[in-house]
Structures are given as C-alpha cells and as structure tokens.
Fold Type I restriction enzyme endonuclease subunit.
Amino acid sequence: MSTPSLKETHISQIPALQLLMKLGYRYLTPEEALEARGGRNANVLLESILKEQLKKINKIEYKGREFPFDDANINNGIVALRDLPVYEGFISANQAFYNLVTLGKSLEQTILGDKKSFTFRYIDWEHPENNVYHVTDEFDVTRTGRKDTYRSDIVLFINGIPMVVIECKSPKLKEPVDKAIEQHARNQQEDGIRSLYHYSNLLISTAVNDGRYGTTNTHKKFWGVWKEKYRTAEAREQDPAKLLQLKNAPLPDNERTVLFKDRYRDVLPYFTELEQQEVAVTAQDELLYHLCNRHRLLDLMYNFILYDDGEKKIARYQQYFSVRKIIDRITRKQPDGTRQGGVLWHTQGSGKSLTMVMLAQLIANHPAIKNPRLLLVSDRLELDEQIKETFKKCKKPVRQATTGRHLVELLEDKDDAIITTIINKFENAVKIAEPFTSPDIFVLVDEGHRSQYGAFNVNMQRVFPNACFIAFTGTPLLKAERNTASKFGGLIDIYAINDAVKDGAVVPLLYEGRHNLMDVNAKPLDEYFDIVSEDVSDYGKANAKRKFSARNKIVQSINFIDNTAKDIFLHFRDHIQATGFKAQLVAPTKLAAVRYRDAFKALGKVSVDVVISPPDDREGEEDAFEESDDQIKKFWKAMMGRYGTPDKYEKNIVHNFKYRDQPEIIIVVDKLLTGFDAPVNQVLYLTRSLKEHTLLQAIARVNRLAPGKDHGLIVDYFGNLENLDGALKMYANDDTLIDDIDLGDTLVDIAKELLQLPQAHSGLKEIFKDVRNKLDSEAYEVLLGDEAIRYEFYKKLSLFTRLLKLALASVTFIRDTPAQVVDTYKNDLAFFLGLRASVMRRYSDELNYSEYEAQVQKLIDKHITTDGEVLKITGPVNIFDKEKREAELERITGKAAKADHIASRTARAISIKMNDDQVFYKRLSELILQTIDDYRQHRIDEAEYLARMMQRESEFFAGHGNDVPEELLDNANAIAYYNLVSEELKEILKQERDSVGIAVAIALGIDNVVNDNIYDNGKPVIDWYKNEDVKGKIRIEIDDLLFDFTDKYKFDPDLERFDYLIDESIKIAESKHR
C-alpha cells in the first residue's frame, strides 16, 4: 500500500472534483473551458454553453402559443450579462449581476405583429433540472489592467455562468482555510480577477478536515461554518449514510477518463489503489455535499442572499434552517384555517433582522400562499431601504407606513404591497383599526422592545384575529412571557449566545465591574428623603423613594459624573482610542447624558455625541422633579438648530459613529440599546441599572464581528452583574426552565479571563527552557530557527499579548497584582515582541498581523519601554526587490543572523521560482540546507556561513551555478533544459563518457523546438500553454530530437526517461513563457 499523499491536488482538489461530478456537475478540462470562453482568459462566461441554454430555458407564451426568443434578443441577453456596470464599483457590479439573474431582463420582441416586452431568464430557479451544471479546475483569468493571470482551483457554472469559486488547500499547511480565504481576498483586489467574482454568489475555502463559506467580498472574519440541521432522527442517520455511499460510488468510466486523461494521469494509479477500499467522509465532503447540491445551491442563491448597507451577505446555517422550518410550518393550515406562527429566539448579533427579511421574501413568493399580506414591524429605521432592495425579487411594491393612521389605510388597501413600519406606529395603529380577518396576513415583528407581550398583544389579536404572527427575539423568553408566547405558536427555533460564539458569528463578551468607584455614604440622603416626604402615604413614599433613591441621584450628580467620565476617558484613551474601535456609554437619565457630554468636552482629546429622545419624552428613570429641564432643553434646541429634525439628528450621529472617525463615544439613555448594529463598537460603559432583556440587549451592542476585534468589553460602573445573573435565571423556553444557565455562556468576568495570564506567560517562557544563557538573545534566535518551534512561539506570544493588553486595561488587575509581577510581564513582553520582529526578519516570515497591528502598537507605545529604541511591528518585504532586501538586511545585527535571513528569504524565493528550473533550484535548496547544517554542527564559523549564503543568493538571482557551460550563459531557458537533461543523461550513459557536450546540444535543441512552436512571426501565441495541439506538436518534436541524438551519439534510448524529459521540458516552457 502506498503512503497517503498530502499534496493539495491529491487530498483536496481531485476529491472535490470527484464529489462534485457525482452531484451532477459535468467536468470540463481547463482546455475545454477555455474553448467555451472563446479562447480568451479575459472572458469568464462559457458563452457557447450560455447561448445554447438561454435558447432552451426561454420561451415566449403569447395568445396560447409558444415562441422562441430571436437570435438578436439572445445576443442582447448575453451582452447585458457581459457588460456589467463595473465603473460603479465592485459590489455594485455584482449586485447588478445578481438582480439580472434573479429578476431577469425585459426584452422587446414582435410576435404575431405585436411588439411587446417579455421577461428573459438566465436561470430556471423553479426547475433546477432545466439548467446545466459544469465544473472545471485550474481556471486562469486575466488580471485587471495586466497581461498575467490568477488561477482559481475550482469553478462551478450554472448555464455557463461562474457562480461558485472554490479554493482548496492541503491540511499540512498552517491555517490552511485562512490561506484559502486570503487567496479569495487577493483575487478580489482591484488588480486581481474581479471579472470572475462579479458573477460569484458562493465562495468556498476548504482543506479536507475544515472548511468555510462566504459570498462576494466577504471579509475573512465573516466567513461562516455550515452545520446541517436535521428535523428527524431518521434524517440525521440517513443523510451521512447517503453521503458515504455517494463518495464511494465509482465515477462512470467516461467521466473518470476525462478527469484523469491529461493533467492528472500521473496520479491515476494512486487513486485507483485508494479506492480499492472504503474511503472515509471528510468535513470538506460534507460542506460541498450540503452547499453544492443543485437544489440547495439554487435555494441559497435565490432566497438567502441580500445586500445590506453596501455589503453582500449570504445566510448562515441557522438563518437558512430556521427560515425553512418556518415556511414548512406556515404552509400547512390548521383545522380552523389559520396558520401557526411562533417565536424565533436567535441571539443578538446573529443576523436576526436579516432572517426576518429573508423569511418575508419567501412568504411573498411562495406558490402555496395565495395573495399574502405581509406586515414587517421593526425598531430599525435603516431596515427600510434594505427591505425595499430585497423585495425587488418579489415583484411586489413595498409601502412604508409613516403614521399609525397611514398604516391602517395601507392595510385597508386591496393591493398586495408589502408594508413596513416601526414599532411605535404599529402600536398606534392597532389601537384604532377595525379587525382584519384574513388568515393570509403575516405579521413579522422584530420585537426588541418586547412591547407586544402585554396590552399591545391583546390589541394585535383583536385587530388580526386570524393572522399568523412570527416574533423575532434576541433574548430568551421570561417565564412571565411564556403563556403569551405560546399564543404565537411557541418557540420555533433557538440559536443561543454560546452557539454564536462557538460558530464565530459574534465575538465573546468580557465583563469588568468598576462600581466600587461609587462607594459613598448614601445614608444622609436617605434620611433627608424621609423628612421631606413625611406626609406622603407609605405606598406613595415607597414608590417615590424608588425613583428618588440615593443611588440614582448619585449616578447623575456632577461630582460622580466628572469622576466617572475621567476614568472612562483614561481607559478609552489608553486602551481603545487609535485602535479603530469605539465605545457606547449608557447614562441613567437625559440630564446625566448631557452632563457626561459636557464632562468629556472639558477633558478634551476624545470626541463624543449624545443620542436621546426629545425633552418631553420619558426616557430612563427620570421624573419631573429630578430633572433640570433648562439644561436638556438648551441641548435639544442646539441639536435641532444643527440637524433640523429629531430623525435627522439621530441618523446623522449614528451614521458618523458607524462610518466616520468621530464621535468616538456615543452617549445614550434608552435609545440604541436594541437594534443598534455597529461592528466598530467594542466597549459598553454602563452607568445605570439595566435589567432582564434590556440588559442582555444592551451588552450585545458590542458583540458584533469586525476585523481585529477579538472580544467586546462591558465596563460596569453601577453593579449590573447581579441583575444579569438574575435575569438569566428567570428565562425559560416553551418546555424547560433555564434555571441553571452558566453566566459564562453569556459573558466572562475579565478577572476570570485573566486567570489564564500566568499560564500564558509561563507557557511562552517554557519554549526557551533549553537556552542556557538567558541573557544571550542570539541563543533565542537560533532556537527559533526551527520552523515548528517558531510557529509555536508566535502562537503563544499572540495569546500572552492579548491577555496582557486586557490586563493592563483592568483596574482590578492593576490593584490586585504586585507591581513587580506587572513589571515582569511588561519587560518580558517587550523582549518577546522585539524577538518576534527580529526573527521575522531573520527567517523571512510573513505573518498577517494587519487586523491587530494598531492595537498591539498601541500596547507597545503605552506600556512597553525599549531603552530608547522605538519598537515597531515588522511587515513583509518583497524578496525580489534588491533595494528593500538590502535595507532589511542592514537592520539585522550579527553575521549568523544575516546568514539565516538570507537563507530563509532565498528558500522562500526558490519555492516561488521552482517550476522555472526544478533541477537547479532543488540543488540550490540542498546546498542551503547543507550550509545551515555545517554551521549548526560548528564545521564552519559565522563569517564562512555568511559568505556561503551570500554566494547561494547570488546564484539564485543569476539563475544558475558556476558550472554552467559557457555557450549557455546568455540563454536562461536553455540552462533550465540543460540542468534537466544533464541529470537524466548521467543515468542513461552510466558515467561511461562526458555527457556535458551532449546535454548542451539537446538543451539548445529543445529550446529551438519550443521557440519555433510558441512564437509566430516573433510574437508569442496567446495562451499557447492551454492549446493541446501546440503542446502535442512540441512533444512530438522533442521526442524526435531525442531519438536523433541517440543515433548521432550512439547510446540506447531510455523510453521512460525520455517521457519524463519531455513532460518536464514542457513544464519548464510553460513556466518560462507565460
């Protein structure tokens, strides 16, 4: 039995192709795909296939007869698909494509003498079997503004349109899926192959035992995992068995022949042996099986993609399965003719509002629901534009209710418009409306305020007695809400916070209590209140005292606010500012919010804004006698003078917070505690009491994903931890009380997180336990010459850096940790960060710290001293840029360190150039490794080590060694053929005679054969390396050449070696002449 192969093509790419072929995709060789593209790498559409399919799936039905679209309209349809508005931007062009393939295009044609417009389709979404599906690999596409190409591993086509792009990696790589995602990102850069990604809907990155998916321009942080969810135990058992059977089913002989006939013919014996016994299912198989199944793929692309605020988004698995679960439920009517609704509990930050929009468009389009009336109730004003854009596919108008009365008018209207409104207008409408009795009314409520669980719900049931209600919540249901929720139909689906953190859908939350700063004597204030309220009844006194409590007065006092603002300012300045992230402060009252704003402005150096409701609206816990009306009214007047209306005031500040540099801190009372989605928001400063679902909603403001954001932070100045613990224990779902929820499922106390710090510190130092002289920095660097040890060092340093950054921002840590220990941590971090920068240069490592660079640099600048030297994070250097190479080398001290750096960067450059001349570069790699070993074994000193490495680098850039025959020195291509031929001739001639002269003659002959075939009148034949006719002619002529030389120099032909020489010569030619 052969040894298992970990090569990318063997373990990932070919198995992916085989499974996709078994799923019904017809394999096209790269050559066949290029031919279907008109022979042009700049064209990504398989136009010959596209044209044929458009004729098949498009028919005009008119006056009871069927007519084809004429050729002119078929061509017009193709032109529309080809000429996307790329000048409007990458995503805009992609959205134009998406609208085109999902909505179709209106084309005019004269039928029976009548000129009319008819809808022209690109995909038959309703009948997947009417489309054709192809898969190809090694898909070269010309880069934007350049002549060279980038290559995608696998591309899936539907009707000749490239809608799925897959990158495969070997699991032997470090972070292989991340590397695949980065390759997608590179390809989508301005100088990449956006012309391919303009048509993409699904992107997959896979590495056998892991895989993730995204869509066009998805940032790495937002790529998702797919977890298949089954309705029944039977399905859970049968589906994996079906996949195993499919994977081990043999490909039909004709398909197997096509796959392995050319590029992969050398590995056919390996796969033949591999498939003699059952092959296990991998995570890659599961991902492709579940996402690329043709029915699932079309469903995902048509129903579960939308554009939100300039970003394209595809459903996560919990969104997909919950929507499908709801559709199954509501399409089956109950005995009384109504439809069962329910409550969907998906944790905040997991895309709950987008789930609602996806569901709504499916209801609007569903063939089993005739004339549905859809009412979407949200607390997010910004959802309106998104909803309008999404519902283009429904071909139904979207009406926005501007007032409660207007909402009633829209409901009374008989058209089939989709109605959107925000929660307060809906509340007003149900108070005045007459009942609407249709069972085909669907009310979808994004209930951030939970107001429908009370009197509001009674009114809803009165106005819509037979409607189907579906509520979307980000927090679990309170026990008191269970009975009301059951009237909706009970819980439909749960996606809890721990699921979201585990899936990487949100960042984990860390908690730090700072309310000990508010430790004051409240007794005198309580006694004063007892005196002034002596004549009030006990009930009134208790009620008033609750509102006028000492604590509530303290947290909005000027002294407390000034002190707290200063602490917040220092925390924000030292740990958040300049990292690109922002913060939200929750104040107890509008008066306190304005006072915080004034306090920050007095401190300066941090920009803040306040978002509150108008002065006459009750907000927070304020009461008439506890508020300074003048101060708030003065603030409000200034805001209205600046922005004009309350709506513009809020929208402008929110927009600036989310997308501009300022404000850095946004101050609120009750506003923006729900439905406020700002990934840039990392810290929530709590200065008031929050309870139950409001508390859980509020803390989720900082759990949104963003590049470089590894956690959200709750800094509590009031003492809400007990409230949170109590709130969690009050929650229940339909069947089981959740009385024992671990608080760690929701957020982690920062003190608990920092318990890892000592272990992270010792684990980092443990790497260097064998370094005898702990003051010898060179010994550390030499130890890190081992790539595996170096990688472990990077990983452990990253953990230690993250934890220490967190610790230095914690009052508790600074207070409870001896100064000597803190200094040790800081000094060690300074050394290890410097060591990392040095070894990255020395060994030419390219680590991607771009997401975290600002944060780590902030940590260095604030806390780490380096004896006068400014420590900066190192970045990658172009190893082919001589000036930059030399500048980087100058930064390295010590001959051995310089030699290591030259060795590592030359080895990396060799890996890039290997295909140009495998014999030479393999020999050079071996010489580099031998030189390193000679130095490590003390056979040579540092000076000799550096001299030899400089010689090796010089040979690399010369492209040959010192033993190249003189007649070849000016011909780099012939040198590569010579190195190949001379190695094989030594074996053929068995050292019986000097083979140099023969090898030179053969190499020059091969070079002439190649040039004669790939150049036409001095100009290279376009994409000759993809033309099998050209390569076949080269193959024959080299074969003839070799046999001519056996006759001329009288040696026996070795057919196996000749075949190898021919194959490798063509590979060299392909690499040299692109």
Notes: DSSP finds 44 helices and 30 strands in the chain. Residues 753-863 form one domain. The two ends are 39 Å apart (CA to CA).
